Amino acid sequence: MTQDHTTGPDAAPETPWRPARTVAVVLAGGTGTRLGLGIPKQLLKIAGKPIIEHTLAVFEAAPEIDEIIVLMAAGHVDEAQQIVDKAGFRKVSKVIEGGDTRNATTRIALDAVGEGDVNILFHDAVRPLVSARIVRECVNALWTYSAVDVAIPSADTIIQVDENDCITDIPVRSTLRRGQTPQAFRSGTIREAYRIAAGDPDFAATDDCGVVLRYLPGTPIKVIDGSDENIKVTHPVDVHLADKLFQLAAAQAPRLTDQRAYTEELTGRTVVVFGGSYGIGHELTELARGYGAQVFPFSRSTTGTHVERAEDVEAALKSAFEATGRIDHVVVTAGILEKGELTEMDQETMDRVLNVNFVGPVTIARQSLPYLQQTKGQLLLYTSSSYTRGRARYALYSATKAALVNLTQALADEWADYGVRVNCINPERTATPMRTKAFGEEPEHTLLAAETVAQSSLDVLISELTGQVIDVRRAPGEAPAAGIPGQAGKPATPAAAG
């Protein structure tokens, strides 16, 4: 349906719009049927948190939003309320059950908002990557328009078919958009559209802007630009895509501005580094110490600590705790890379790779949890770019690194209730003694500096990220050890892998 505007889209309203407040209504009524889940899809965890928690966090942080109302799937209101309470979302005023249909859900939401002039934003709970920019532009547009939609251009040609699946029309793509949410309204407009629609026996809403379009045809509906990242988690592939998009966002973890800021963050913290004698572990140890942290590096070569031995790990953690009374971060950079055909490897070599690269991090994770629970701290693991695709002649190394990614994501979920974060750093090829031993001398400009990875690791440790695989790469043409402002020799900002 097209609109017949009775007034120009830029015409000023007859009376100034003065909303009492702006309310975000988060629609969480989906059941997850298409994902094949036993729980509503909005409760599925991505990047260490339920999808709905990510979504609510955006509106909680938006200064334009005064209040949030959640309409939850039947039978799951208590679970949603627990998420709200645990996260401390102060703007959420109500968590109530939605209706059986979109019509009924919107009417319940309007009743919950109450009377008076209010801005209302309806947003799908399973669009957790909505940006602050989109929220802001929706609210700002309501000063001029009484209905606002969010959409992106269609990259695909859209065809129209008949009942026999034969093409009847191919609309001009330049005029087409793919709708997203939020959809924003002045409360009087959306209420009036639904009041008129109630008299239509064939009324069935799937889209609130569509209700305005059909039943208030003289009302301009402003469209603002959405984003490709603002996807709706509906199908199994969407879960994978959302997870990867969160990884891209994670790679942009805030970089503190100067040394004083890092010192304020790290002074008084205790960091335990397994594998801290050389390479990334050594650089992280020195960097964190320089910012005031108390760092305890352990390794096979310097302290006789074997990460695969539970008694060695226990002793290491105990000594750090007894010295400082706390452990805030546990970092596991220990690892070995043995090249060779799998069928040609002897049992001793295979056992060593598996034990150091996987059994070790598992052992450290199990024994670190009691300490990290006390400080709401973080476990930081390391993978390799080979985790995405196994590499010939170091199959076991690749396999163990893939296992660490799964371990990170699983533990982030398991430990979320304890307030303990778990993340994994994925650096590109890095200049370390382990790499030199395995591959020989390589051109310096092709490798990432270990200092760069250490700086990125530090940024992740002091962030609130969890369940993330953070890709660290050099910018094209950048020197291996570019600095943060005012500090020559400090590494560059991490960038996400595509």
Describe this structure in words.
Pathway: Isoprenoid biosynthesis; isopentenyl diphosphate biosynthesis via DXP pathway; isopentenyl diphosphate from 1-deoxy-D-xylulose 5-phosphate: step 2/6. It is built from 14 helices and 19 strands. It is of the alpha/beta class. It has 2 domains: 213 residues, Spore Coat Polysaccharide Biosynthesis Protein SpsA, Chain A (Alpha-Beta Complex); 222 residues, Rossmann fold (3-Layer(aba) Sandwich), CATH 3.40.50.720. The chain has a 7-stranded mixed sheet with strand order 5-4-1-6-10-7-11, with helices on both faces. α12 links the parallel β15 and β16. α9 packs across α14. The longest helix is centred in the last third of the chain and has 29 residues. The two termini are 39 Å apart. The N terminus and C terminus are likely disordered.
Q: CATH superfamily name of the largest domain?
A: NAD(P)-binding Rossmann-like Domain
Task: Look at the structure and give the CATH class of the largest domain.
Answer: Alpha Beta
**Strand neighbour order, sheet with most strands:** 5-4-1-6-10-7-11
Strand content: 15-25%
Radius of gyration: 27 Å
* Average pLDDT level: 87
Structural class of the secondary structure composition?
alpha/beta
- Overall helicity: 25-40%
Main sheet record: 7 strands, mixed
Distance between the termini: 39 Å
Family: Belongs to the short-chain dehydrogenases/reductases (SDR) family. Belongs to the IspD/TarI cytidylyltransferase family. IspD subfamily.
InterPro entries: CDP-ribitol_syn (IPR012115), IspD (IPR001228), IspD/TarI (IPR034683), IspD/TarI_cytidylyltransf_bact (IPR050088), NAD(P)-bd_dom_sf (IPR036291), Nucleotide-diphossugar_trans (IPR029044), Sc_DH/Rdtase_CS (IPR020904), SDR_fam (IPR002347)
GO molecular function: 2-C-methyl-D-erythritol 4-phosphate cytidylyltransferase activity
Keywords: Isoprene biosynthesis, Nucleotidyltransferase, Transferase
